[in-house]
Amino acid sequence: MGSILKNKTINMNKMNVKSMTQTQALADGYLYCCKDNDEITELLGIMDCPFDADYVLLGKKSYPVTVGEDTIRELLVDYMANQDEVADEDGELCDLVATVDYSDISKKVNEVLSVKKYWHSTNIKLIKDI
Hints:
The structure is a single chain. By secondary structure, this protein is α+β, with helices and mostly antiparallel strands. The chain has 2 domains: 5-65 and 116-127, no CATH class; 69-108, no CATH class. Helices cover 28% and strands 27% of the residues. It has helices spanning 22-27, 69-81, 92-98, 103-113; strands at 5-6, 18-21, 32-35, 40-41, 44-45, 55-64, 117-127.
């Protein structure tokens, strides 16, 4: 597993929250849970949940980590703009870097990153089986 999760759960105290037991969640197709907070958090199997805090289910679908070509372009333009070794007062180097088509690079990076997945958290509270 070893995947990371940026957990953006909704504070359960502010909403009408559905809840499910571990057995119900597994029967409904959920596999993972996490602490109910707004931090990068550990991804846990439902049956591995320690219940030392409030836990929510993660969505059934995972998503790949991706980097878009615009992000790559912006990073390289910023990199060129901050080079101390090169005098580029008119921004010509940045303009040149901005004209490159980064779609192939983005595709290659995303292929490598495709092994890492993340899940969106839900507002479904996980309850320990009795």
